[in-house]
Fold each of these.
Amino acid sequence: MFISNNACLVPNSFWLTGIPGLESLHIWLSIPFSSMYLVAVVGNVTILAVIKMERSLHQPMYFFLCMLAVIDLVLSTSTMPKLLAIFWFGARNIDLDACLTQMFFIHCFATVESGIFLAMAFDRYVAICDPLHHTSVLTHAVVGRLGLAALLRGVLYIGPLPLMIRLRLPLYRTQIIAHSYCEHMAVVTMACGDTTVNNFYGMGIGFLVLVLDSLAITVSYVMIFKAVMGLGTPEARLKTLGTCSSHICAILVFYIPIAVSSLTHRFGHDVPPHIHILLANFYLLIPPILNPVVYAVRTKQIRERFLHILKAESQPK
């Protein structure tokens, strides 16, 4: 590490604080966090296994659900092992390149997840508003291309973030990141140089992903509701809306924690730092935990197949 004349550092690594202000409780905090991470991993792996084993679930909606499960595994695994290492072993040091890699994976796959929700909204729109052409429009190849497009969009949007930090911001006031993981703004705010470009780019990506994606999803559901209201009987309306309920719940589970965390970070200046950090961790943990639960509870085929597997395993051999 080199210290320049203006007391700015050129660090090879950073120091993550974990949950600032709650250091004495880290070992106790590890219990709920490790439990939630375990539930997230088991739940999403179970969803992947059930859909793989049950051929009747090889449909567009369930393929998108598999993509969500993989994304949720990547998101939770990008942060939780390091957080638990901080809690259990005090392993706060993180290499600069590892920090930027973690930043890329977190923000990239959060962007990809938003894109998958948008693709799922399109799937529900076609299934309800043009059901006769659903299978011809949403073929396996089209579903794969939509997933690839969401992944490429995430890479293209987020790829410049760590690159701009690496190339434009070599000097830092401190090595201590007041966070439990390498979040973009937490790193940028420590920099000594001009961070205007980084700030505006980060805000622009946030607008493109969260605002535009949520608007597009809202428009698709407005059109869906119009089509549903045109159905003849209340029973038909409820049955049709029931096919969208899991997707709507998953969207709320994804966007509400992000919105709360972002608003608290931007405007909650009186909110204690540990609340900021806890909210930031929850928005990466809550969707991976709740998505499998929502789809297992709300989707009859997944629920029945899962119960069938459990019964088969419990029978004596």
Note: The mean pLDDT is 88.
Amino acid sequence: MKRSCKLLSTLAKEEFGKFFESFDTVLTDCDGVLWMGDNEVIDSANITLNKLQELGKKVFYVTNNSTKSRDDYVKKCARLGFKADKESIIGTSYIAASYLKNIGFNKKVYVIGTEGITKELDAVGISHIGIGRDVMSDTVVDHLKSGNFTLDPDVGAVIVGFDQHFSYPKMMKAASYLYNKDTLFIATNTDEQFPSSDFGVVIPGTGSIVAAVQTCSAREPIVMGKPNPTIKDVIAKTHNLDPARTLMIGDRCNTDILLGTRCGFATLLVLTGVTQIHEVREWEKSEDAELQKLVPDFYLDKLSDLLDLLP
């Protein structure tokens, strides 16, 4: 059966009331839904999300962005006017560190990424190397002869997240570590690009970096972020999460909405980020079952449009 996506604001008052009472938990993406970059709240998204909490909804901030730790996100939420605590932040850096801790990992991690990942590794007592600049000195041969390229024999895992300093030497090191089939290959997420309202350019996301390492190493990563259901499992360990009474809000259908579809959540797309409604309309008409999974239940132009609908 083909899925269809309705504009939420067109529901009759009674119908919206039934929708609103159908969920207790809200999982929301962040970049492109709540904010753009570090300082731009998207049109009263903070007021909207805080209102949902005042009305009794449990809110989790679910982000594929690996550049910040949970503590960093709590500070950002406070600065931008969102009510949040550490337990309500579910980020891929945290999930990756928790995954390694839970399997009893006791070696070193080579990190392509930022302090968002290493802070979470530090929190669970896992040592790491790799963040920061690692640039090519000249040709590959000269670089290898220079002594600047060394491999640590204690590395037992490679984590790939977003890294503005991603370079050819980093790709070589990651692939070299992964040549050992016992070395774990973890990707925080596979988002192709970041939502951006500025500059008129495409900002490559973590998925672009993961794809490079994946191609070079001929290895498949374990993906921590959306649409992988690992996020649902992490929340369910500490909170009573009923998929049938959960709403997933996002701006990207191949991560946020697909997670919701796979987990049995209701789904709400906002058009302030990556996916646009004309794409959804094409997927609605498709006979491809995988494309049908990308179709959300509802959409709004922006999250704050929900404010006028709330009781």
Note: The mean pLDDT is 94.
Amino acid sequence: MENHKNVTEFVFMGLWENRQVELLFFLLFLLCYLAVLMGNSIILVTITCSHLIEQPMYYFLCHLSLMDLCYTSTVVPRLIRDLAATRKSISYNECMTQLFTAHLLAGVEIFILVSMALDRYVAIVKPLHYLIIMNRKRCHVLIAMAWSVGFWHSIALLLMVLSLPFCGPNHINHYLCDVKPLLKLVCKDIHVVSILVIANSGMVVIAIFLVLVASYILILYNLKTRSSAGRHKALSTCSSHVMVVVLFFVPCIYTYVLPAGSENKDKEISVFYTVIAPMLNPLIYTLRNSEMKNTMHKVWSRISL
């Protein structure tokens, strides 16, 4: 306890200071969370109980839905509880646990999105070698790499925060324990630590986002040689993935590239990747995917019998 001295708990200031607004959003976020649970559970059951699990694209989508379920469940239940509570407190140990878990799951999700982009790139640019390159063993390796990279990213942030002194005050201007709002409570100069956070999170997210953008530019370039029907099918699949990438990455870039001391809309913007993106992902991947919709109908018809 020496590093955080007399601070044994933190108090969230939440998204809004107006009590009536908080009660209104209590109901809204509860409905959003139920939508996340239902939508991603339907995706998981549909893929795992059908032939789709054999296809790399749906294999990765299954893991993405699992990450959305886990990541949202790390943040949103406490947010919903706090919206109805008069005092939004969290113990020091619980705060550190939430910090580690949220960054672990977010890191895994980012690299699953990279794996999905790689899958689409190979399918469109090297279609004759697709089954050889994206075999099941390589898919397992990519998921294992996602967990490994996510773990080292989150453990580095956790160890850095654990080494910092928290002497008070203990009010976090946020609704979850994240590294940037915590840095504002540290009772020492955070200039170097802030740079490390930007390097660990912000620069990494920008680099990955640029790689993803480059991969889709290459995909679009290679689509010129395809037939009209093939081009339409590939664009439909890729556009869904691009929407998910933009929904997740753009708010993350805004949040983690700016230094910790700057005044911005971090907590409002973070709602996009903690609540909105996980809620919309199932809709984005199913509404424009006839194969997914047909399989969903068959699987759930079989289950209901």
Note: The chain has a mean pLDDT of 86.
Amino acid sequence: MSCSSCCGLSISISIPKEAWTHVDRNDFQRFESMTSGSSSKMKALRMTFLLLLLFIPAMIFIFILAGLTSRTDRHISTMSRPPKTVPIQISEQTFTRLNNTKHLLVSAFMDQRRKGLDIRIIGIFKRDSINPLNCYFWCDGHMSVPTPSEIMVHSDHFGFPYGATDVMCPIPENCYATHVTLVTRPTSDIEPDQLWLPIRNREMKENVNDTFQFDFTVCISNLFGDYNNVLQVAQTLEMYRLLSVDRVVIYNTSCGPELDRLLQAYIQEGFVEVVPWPIDQYLSPSKGWLFSKHGGELHYYGQLTSLNECIYRSMARSRYVLLNDMDEIVMPYQHTNLTSLMDMLQQQHPNTGVFLIENHIFPKKHFEPSKRFHLPQWNGVPGVNLLEHIYSEEPDRKVYHPHKIIIQPRMVEQTSVHEVLKKFGQVFKVPPQVCRLIHVRVPLQGALPIDQLHVDKRLWDFHERLIPNVDMVLRRAGLLNRGAELMDD
């Protein structure tokens, strides 16, 4: 006997032939002896008995089928349901507002250097309104369950209401995460306008000895106020190129039209990467570093956040990262380039991931008297000519004196402007006779006369290659005084 159910189950029940034979020889003989008096009654009883014989296996079949169906239903009910799939909106802006908060998110990176944590989201948070957040991940086509976050406001905020902030998230099991978002409370329904951040550095190198795309990256924060110091920028970038720098990342809030043309020329050749930084469209940023003195909502146009963002942007692709401003050059004095400098320093200090470079001020009001490098082709180019400024102040080391930084990014977790806040290795102050900062700007120590300044012509050592390279990029950007150049030829 067999039966096929509507759900595709097939069950067969067979009764051995011997069992039927046993019934014929025993039960039927007794039954006939009891009913020999009446053939019609015997036929009726015989029919009843046959019906009973058919009813019993039928009931057995029904019980078996019911049991199988019950077990199948229980198995289906306990199986994990497919995760909810929803369309997501991916943020394509530098700053992403976090729904139901006053916070801004910037970017997300894979970072598994802290046990139990996988993703670091870099943001700018209102420090007096921080509440718990939950992380959701887009896992190769579906949304994950929420995971709790760990919120870390950077210790350096200089009193401003907003500060650089990291949000750390663990990725749930069985999730190949490609995007992440934050919500103020767990929910089964993400808001339709919720924006998701792509997760960068997902193929992060763990071995610091691996080959990197770049040996040196310079991080420049932030251009603002229609900054248009074209000549100094061109000289600085070309000097860095001579010193073995491979990539310069510049965070740009606003710059002048001539500088924009210069940067576009560098972008086209792949040497410069410009990150739009329109923080003034979201907050009221300060032009100074101290809230009590300069006001505003955020330190120096978000300088702290941009420096940290650049570290993580460069972490998987660059062996070293230099953190400094556009008017500064990290200059080796005993080596011809940064490669040989860092090879020596790293060999002498193998467990060091942070190298502090002392700042030396070259007041831009003092000029080299011979005017040797006052070149006519640069007359129409806006900005400072670095080669004309050779006088430097002696740092006053009895008071706090700032440094800038060369780091191995994989050994740094958080940085400030002049020092690293959280790190995994040692810190070394590089002696100024080995390497120091050439910083052409207004004086730091007031109106010191020239005879109290040091003569430093280190930049002149590179002039034979530096000048034609500067001319070339200015010409490519259409900024060189071509008439003066022809007269000079």
Note: Residues 286 and 296 are 5 Å apart (CA to CA).
